[in-house]
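Database export, one record per block. Field names are fixed; values are copied verbatim from the stored entry.
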Amino acid sequence: MPSEEHNPVPRWRERLAALRDTLPIFKMVWEASPRIVVANVSVRVVVALLPLAMLAVTKVVIDAIYQYSAHQAALPSYFWWLVGAEFLLACVSTILVRFGDYCDTVLADKYAKHVSIRIMEHASRLDLTSYEDPTFQDKLERARVQGTDRVLMIQAAGRLVQQAVTTISMAASICFFSPWILAALVVCIVPAFLGETHFAFLGYSLSFAQTPARREMEYLRVLGGSKESAKELKLFGLGRYLVDRFTNLAMRLHRETAGLARRRLLVGSLLTLLGTLGYYGTYAFVIYQTVAGVLTIGTLTLLSGAIAAASSNLQMVFSTFSTIADQALFIGDLLDFFAVKPAVLSKQNALPAPQPIKQGFEFRNVSFAYPNGRKVLHNVSFKLAPGERIALVGENGQGKTTIVKLLTRLYDPTGGQILLDGVDLREYDQEDLWREIGVIFQDFMRYDMTATENIAMGRRGNSQASERLRSAARMPVRRGNRPFGRRVAEIGAGSGLSAGSAGARPG
């Protein structure tokens, strides 16, 4: 994938290589609902073959009528059965098309749910440092969008199967009478396909470049209409400023998108005329052959229908393939997100967290630097015994919160050791350790849920939740010897660590 800093229009090799990214997505589609996938593909194959079957029946019916009217030949004994069969095929086609649309809707919903769950699960396993990286934030935003927006690609893939089967069947019937007619159709349609593909890749490149601006627009939209920001918006008169800033970004993106759309309209229209020329040129040739007595009226009907269907479906195949190629470029963003792996992990056969803590924590010459190289801690050493409280005092950015994140193993130190009961913190099972820890950060999370659910967030699935919830709701939080309100976010720490504005308390 192109870098975040520079994303030129992909070369053709990169464009074709992007199609490989569709395989993992189709695997996700299969995982979402194998039965619906099989039903959808089967229905589309049958629907794709029905037009040729109807044309074949129509050819026999028209030739029989011509022989009857021009040469007084008797109608075949099965003539009316053929008329009924044509009607039956039309009814079956109508029903199956609707069933295919139903499969598309169900499959899209199941896939969107499946991939959204996968994104949430993967995001929950990533390191905290990933979320503090603006580049990762752009990647996560694109993954969230592309995860659900690729439903269009899935539906396009279903249409491509149907269009390809129809095109092949119609092309085979045309080729049976004249391979040159088929060759002329293909030659006239290929330029339109190449043009559509080129503009599809330009669209991807533009969308990639617009990601930071779109993320800022989403932030401004939420900021301008949330209860958390309402007070400041009114007191500081920020409403008009945010609206103007959003509007300027939106107008810039609109100019870029509309400019590309205008170029695509102009060039695409000219190239599409070549496809129209190919259709009518081959149609005129078939008419000439019929007038010359080379082809029958029934064959003319079959070929004219096959040429029209092959021409339109061939254009649709190229257009749909171009759409899938376009979507494949965006899929790379989703796969890039899934390729991000956490570095802070539990070892195999990791130790369970100690219950209760006996010796406490010890920092031994601990240093920490962020991925961007900024060092906030250098050779920090201290001990924190069970039942002991400490207060960390310092200016913003001096590492107070970083120490808490290291203590809870949201980060791993870049130098030194953090010991818990004399054992390196990295030797413990990460999730087991977190179950014994409760933290109130300065930017703590308040969930838009009930008070009960907010209290229970620290201990999901606890069998004694009902009694513990009531006890937690009544528990005061003290600063020194004076209670100062009820901090719901501090409840559920168990016998491990509880950290808040008063410091840290193990035991």
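Remark 1: The first helix runs from residue 12 to 18.
Remark 2: The beta strands are 361-369, 375-384, 415-420, 423-424, 437-439, 478-479, 482-483, 497-500, 503-506.
End of record.
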